[in-house]
Amino acid sequence: MRPLPLNAHRIDVTFYARPTAIVARELIGKALLHQVGPLWVGGWIVETEAYLDKGDPASHSFRGQTPSNTSMFGDPGTLYVYPIHAKYCMNAVTQNPGEGAAVLIRAIEPVWGIDEMRRRRGFDELRRLTRGPAMLCQALGIDRRDDARCLLSDEGLGVFQAHDSPTRPVASTRRIGISKAKHRKLRFVDADSKFLSRSF
DNA sequence: TAAACGATCTGCT
DNA sequence: GCAGATCGTTTAT
Q: What's the whole-model pTM score?
């Protein structure tokens, strides 16, 4: 594996195998990295949403397992990529195998491979590269083919804790773009970030 | 096989 | 802030 672009260690299964809202909150400030060819692309996670296994009608797992949401029911630390409005969004599976809970990664602060992200997005403006779940996937080069990859062992993809990373101020808000369970505060943001999909 | 829907994005006002 | 584009998945006929 090519050396990481920062001094950091990979998040392991014990991090993901916990209640989803906690994982979503603690993913704020972690580094998301994807290796494309010889290059790492990614940045700091600044916005996430929790989608629960039980009692959450906004969650893809609410009506049980189907061919298209199978990876959401996989092991904690599995990547779940799903198509929406002709685009893709990426999640990290949480809790226990078979439960169907995950964290949607909605926005990052672009840090590594910025020119590659600009090229994939067709925009130069930093603010428009990764401020939304589908923009993020396009910038990182994540699509349907990446569904079910393992964030724990895949050498070219993972979430990392930087050794010198400052603590981020985390705020919780209502989730974006859903029609059910709107009131639940399961969106988590870095309160100081300029790279959120929406202000809070 | 047809129709409706959606964890979205963009451009324009 | 709003309308329209866009296409895979799900649900209805």
A: 0.97
Rounded to whole angstroms, the Cα distance separating A44 from A193 reads 10
Instruction: Specify the pLDDT at position A2.
Output: 78
Interval A175-183 mean pLDDT: 94
Footprint of strand B on the protein (CB under 7 A): A 49, 51, 58-61, 72, 82-87, 89, 91, 102, 104, 121, 123, 128, 132-136, 175-179, 197
Q: Tell me the C-alpha distance between A131 and A46, whole Å.
A: 9
pLDDT of residue A15: 98
Strand partners, A90: A81
Whole-angstrom Cα distance, residue A197 to residue A65? 29
The single-letter code of the amino acid at A173 is: T
Q: Which nucleotides of chain C are near protein (any atom < 7 Å from a CB)?
A: 5-11
Through-space separation of residue A179 CA and nucleotide B8 C1' in angstroms: 14
Question: What nucleotide is nearest A138 when CA is compared to C1'?
Answer: B9
C-beta separation of A72 from A80 below 8 A: yes
**A39 near A111, Cβ under 8 Å?**
no
For the stretch A143-164, pLDDT in tens is: 999 999 999 999 999 999 999 8
**Amino acid making up residue A77:** G
Task: For A185, list phi and psi in degrees, rounded to 5.
Answer: -90, 80
Say whether A114 sits in a helix, a strand or coil. Answer: helix
